[in-house]
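Readers of this paper often ask what the protein records in our data store actually look like. Nothing more is needed to write down the fold, since each code stands for a local backbone conformation. Below, we set out a record of this kind in full and without editing:
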Amino acid sequence: MNPRKKKNEHKEKHISKKKQEKIKREEARKKQQQLKAQRLMLIPLIKTFVLWIALLGVVHLFVEFFAPLLIKFTAYSVLLIGKITFIPVDFRPVKFIDVFGYPMQIVVECTAYNYYLFSIALAVFAKWTIKDKIKNGLLFIGVVFLMNNFRFLLLGFIGQYYPEIFDTLHDYFWNIIFALITLGLWLIVNEKSQNRYIEQLPESKRKYYQINE
């Protein structure tokens, strides 16, 4: 074999090996960067749940103070939405409202306060700009407000005409719906809001969030 040809083949193998090592290092770097970015995205959710649980604890600790406020707010909200939609809603003595003539007692668990608090905690720790925190936080709270009021209106109708399924809808269906809609809203707004947040970061910090770089 020609010595020069043999030397060239050896050189090509050496270069090829270097390229493979470089590719492997680059792949390892990208994987580490992806894991770091995913952790950075996950931390706000963990903080959200911690704050949410703490806020729930505060409400339960001072329930005698918060309960009347939450119940009154919910009762007047249902009455307002009922008037706007021309649905018959009336007050009854001590925490009761009539919807379609069906009496329902409002207790603190019916006020959706846990979802209001979760919306606040989510907006506080989400990787969003201040503007998006306010906008998305108000969006979440507004959706929870409307859902909870229409829940009362629908349950009043169900209780009056289909009482056999009232408890099932009240105890299980609405909790599932609330959770799914809250999750769906977060999935809709989070990516765009997060991208806007990343874009305004300094380059030194921005690179840690670029998962697909």
